[in-house]
Request: fold
Amino acid sequence: MEALLDALGHPERKLGTIVHIAGTNGKGTVASCVASIFKASGRKTGLFTSPHLVDFTERIRIDGQQISQQQVADYCGKMQPAVIETGATFFEATTAMAFAFFADEGVDAAVIETGMGGRLDATNVVQSDIVIIPSIGMDHTEWLGGSLREIATEKAAIIKPGSRVFTAVPEAGEAFAPIREAVEAAGAELHQVEREAEWSVEEVCLGALALRISLEGGEPRQIRAALTGSFHAPNVCLAIMAARSLGVSWEHIETGLPRLGAFGYRARLERIADKPVVMLDVSHNPEGMQKTAQSILELRNCFRFLYVIIGVAADKDAAGIVHHIAPVADEIVAVELPTERSLPAAELERLCAEAGAQHVSSRSTVAEALEFLDGRAEHEDMILVTGSFYLAGAVAAMERFRSARASAGAI
Reply:
């Protein structure tokens, strides 16, 4: 990365205020919240996230607008000699492209989500002003380590001297100590959400979360965010704490959080159709699926019957994932992902049955599963598509849902 960025004139040094985000779950939510708040405050804001759902250009945005395909082509041509010389990977080249685009466009702030881990992540070449670590869980263990402490150590390595660090990782847990140690080693500044914020959930509905939030004993504020599920509350608090530390007003925070859709926030319990409601979700580890199941239970009075279409990658903890969603579903259809990394649908069906699913079957593709449910689901039902970014991307790309979303705006 250093060699590639050197060939590009070191754009990572020209990104304005840098917010660097690592963690197991919640990274994308926090990143979109911060970026949307920054835009509302008048800052020209770059946002780099991964993976994309439908189009590569979703990964790189300024003030919510995706990089154009022509700009991607132009940067590819510009970067090609350096990519060949350095042997850069796809993600390294994509990261360098994002930084070059943000620098060329003169952003005031850059919100950067790590790809995986932190210490060896391609994004870990920036000198962060703000570091946010929403959560630490057991995922990518073959690369990051087999314990929460090891994983936290990898992710906390994005902390730099002078960074302000914000985390929702519990102080009493195994994962907190490596974060504290990294903060102390860097001479950084640590803020833990449960120490400095109080919140209560006022309302939970499809696509909207109302919170009452107070920071460090200050006056409570009423906040609405375009999110589904009360579990997002700590993520919202982290984004607000980070923004307030940079002097962003409460008015800009209150303006930005309802507008997450304008920053490309997708597929985190996103409603993409009605009658029946179709929800798109990308939870792909046990901790994330537990929160998805919790959110579905909060919304249980909104629908009559819950159908779940699920696909899981072979390198994920499929048994742990289905353990949380199987008891919530009335019927499950297991499918294969549109990738060679997929767990076979028959194997996933077996795991769902072992986890207590009363009615479970399998189909080869999500298209076949949706066709099957078209003949079963009533207007009052919900269909939840979950388990993988690959699966969510395949559904988001379907014309029936693209058309429904376009006609309704960002649902």
User: Anything to note?
Assistant: The chain has 16 helices and 17 strands.
